[in-house]
Amino acid sequence: MKPGATGLTRVIHAAGYSWLGFQAAWRHEAAFRQELIGVLLLMPIGVWLGGNAVERSLLIGSLLVVLIVELLNSSVEAVVDRIGPERHPLSGRAKDLGSSAVFVALAMAVVVWGLVAWERFGSF
């Protein structure tokens, strides 16, 4: 068992590390900045658009999934870049897979928002 902080101290340390991660993503990742701004703009619209708690949860949750996947993608890219600047097929594959995951998360958000809007407003 690894020694270290436990209980509330561990939670406080973990929150601090999370905050450092958010700061790093904001500072170094343009895609994260763009997506976070989009999420902050769309969240109030999601609260208004959703007709009940489930719809609101889906609308806002699908946006948060985009941020989660972007953070994971950025972490993969940072590790690959740390290994070295030379091109390697596995490094390219790792970055491409991360990018694909972000695309799928964005597509999911579009589908969720589209279906809820369709339900609310009828066919367009």
UniProtKB/TrEMBL annotation:
Keyword Cell membrane (UniProt): yes
Transmembrane feature ranges: 36-54, 60-80, 101-118
GO MF, one example: ATP-dependent diacylglycerol kinase activity
EC number assigned by the record: 2.7.1.107
Main location per the UniProt record: membrane
Keyword annotations: ATP-binding, Cell inner membrane, Cell membrane, Kinase, Lipid biosynthesis, Lipid metabolism, Magnesium, Membrane, Metal-binding, Nucleotide-binding, Phospholipid biosynthesis, Phospholipid metabolism, Transferase, Transmembrane, Transmembrane helix
Cofactor: Mg(2+)
Top-level EC class: transferase
Pfam families: DAGK_prokar (PF01219)
Matching InterPro entries: DAGK (IPR000829), DAGK_prok (IPR033718), DAGK_sf (IPR036945)
UniProt topology in membrane: Multi-pass membrane protein
Catalytic function, reaction form: a 1,2-diacyl-sn-glycerol + ATP = a 1,2-diacyl-sn-glycero-3-phosphate + ADP + H(+)
Subcellular localization, as worded in the UniProt entry: Cell inner membrane
PANTHER family documented for this protein: DIACYLGLYCEROL KINASE
Job description of the protein: Catalyzes the ATP-dependent phosphorylation of sn-l,2-diacylglycerol (DAG) to phosphatidic acid. Involved in the recycling of diacylglycerol produced as a by-product during membrane-derived oligosaccharide (MDO) biosynthesis.
Family membership: Belongs to the bacterial diacylglycerol kinase family.
Protein name: Diacylglycerol kinase
Organism in which the protein naturally occurs: Candidatus Magnetaquiglobus chichijimensis
Lineage of producing organism: Bacteria, Pseudomonadati, Pseudomonadota, Magnetococcia, Magnetococcales
